[in-house]
Inverse folding.
């Protein structure tokens, strides 16, 4: 957040705090129908490997209950639900109704039944769950869109059981050698793809800007530790373009 407590960043623009959630909702309302296609195009399919790595590190077991926060169209949920069966469940949660609706459709298409996946429209800063409910919490490519990241991390800590793990998969800071090409791709190529495929260049320009405003690897690790997580660490993926942060509640 900026020094002015009444404003925060929306990409590179300063906006009133009360307006950011509405603006982010507008972005994802716009891209929901083409979100999965765009993910494959933007990352050349590599996002699937990043998500598989995240699920491997989650060390899921049958009977566990998992919160897939800002889970959108459900890529992580689809990978995790079979791993917690029988007896376990994944709660697919998102603040955006259009994204959550798309996720529900995709889970039904995959044959994931109601006893395996639950759906919840929820704000990461004010989770509607009891304390110490979940064995694992995941959030993939969602934390950077949260206005008050510390509050969201605190809520994730609250709803985890003792011994539970948080996994945050998010765009981060690439190694210097990749930075020029990454900037060119982000601010020139990505909006052009968004315009051609999704008919929306501005939303993808915001996504590129939001990545630059997100805390870097070390800063996010320290933010997690400040909210009570222990053993905080991160794994750089694809040269640091993406990082997986992990922390435990003991």
């Amino acid at each position: 957040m900026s020094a002015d407590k009444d404003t925060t960043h929306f990409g590179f623009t300063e906006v009133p705090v009360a307006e950011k959630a509405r603006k982010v909702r507008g972005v994802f309302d716009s891209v929901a129908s083409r979100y999965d296609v765009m993910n494959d195009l933007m990352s050349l399919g590599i996002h699937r490997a990043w998500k598989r790595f995240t699920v491997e590190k989650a060390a899921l077991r049958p009977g566990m209950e998992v919160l897939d926060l800002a889970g959108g169209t459900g890529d992580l949920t689809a990978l995790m639900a079979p791993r917690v069966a029988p007896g376990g469940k994944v709660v697919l949660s998102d603040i955006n109704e259009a994204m959550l609706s798309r996720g529900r459709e995709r889970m039904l298409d995959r044959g994931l039944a109601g006893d395996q996946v639950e759906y919840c429209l929820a704000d990461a800063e004010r989770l509607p769950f009891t304390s110490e409910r979940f064995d694992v919490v995941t959030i993939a490519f969602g934390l950077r869109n949260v206005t008050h990241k510390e509050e969201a991390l605190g809520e994730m800590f609250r709803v985890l059981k003792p011994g539970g793990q948080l996994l945050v998969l998010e765009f981060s800071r690439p190694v210097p050698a990749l930075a020029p090409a990454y900037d060119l791709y982000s601010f020139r190529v990505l909006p052009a793809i968004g315009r051609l495929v999704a008919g929306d260049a501005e939303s993808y320009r915001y996504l590129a800007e939001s990545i630059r405003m997100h805390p870097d690897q070390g800063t996010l690790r320290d933010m997690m530790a400040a909210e009570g997580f222990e053993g905080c660490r991160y794994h750089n993926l694809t040269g640091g373009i993406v990082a997986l942060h992990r922390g435990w509640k003991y």
